[in-house]
Specification:
This protein is an alpha+beta fold and about 140 residues long. The protein has one domain: Transferase(Phosphotransferase), domain 1 (Orthogonal Bundle), CATH 1.10.510. It is built from four helices and seven strands; from the N terminus they run E-H-E-E-H-E-E-H-H-E-E. It has a three-stranded antiparallel β-sheet with strand order 1-4-5. Strands 2-3 form a two-stranded antiparallel sheet. The model has no long low-confidence stretch (mean pLDDT about 90).
């Protein structure tokens, strides 16, 4: 953990969520969502919390809230320690994690043709279908 003042992930999302996405005007005059550097850092570091736990065969078995993670200088860190729950625990985590990030990265801006940034659906599909062999992310 870093030496800075940390806040819960829930507090961070409530305060910074509007900085995670921006609407870009494309050359064809359509609008598209873009994930900002802040949004990328949030998504990268929160995803890393799960993949690091999974690589050790651990998870939260879907039993986590945004209050179970802390944020320091934009980096998400686990606060609640994961345990050994097996393959099913990791699948439960991914399902809940994907639901959470879909809420954070969804936009209802009427100018948009799509409610998520490009490639976001592919990313969440891959998360939901991670290959877990003998209780370890492979």
């Amino acid at each position: 953990l870093c030496d800075c003042r940390t806040i819960t992930l829930q507090q961070y999302v409530n305060a910074a969520r509007q900085t995670f996405l921006t609407v870009a005007l494309l050359p064809d005059q359509n609008h598209s969502l873009e994930i900002t550097p802040e949004g990328c850092l949030f998504l990268l570091t929160w995803t890393k919390c799960f993949t690091e736990a999974f690589s050790k065969g651990k998870s939260w078995n879907g039993d986590f809230t945004l209050a179970d993670f802390k944020v320091c200088r934009g980096h998400v860190q686990k606060h609640k320690k994961p345990k050994k729950f097996g393959d099913e625990g990791m699948k439960n985590d991914m399902e809940k994690f994907v639901e959470e990030i879909e809420l954070v990265f969804r936009s209802r801006d009427s100018r948009l043709r799509f409610t998520y940034p490009p490639y976001f659906s592919d990313f969440t599909f891959r998360l939901r279908n991670l290959e877990i062999i003998q209780n370890v992310l492979s």
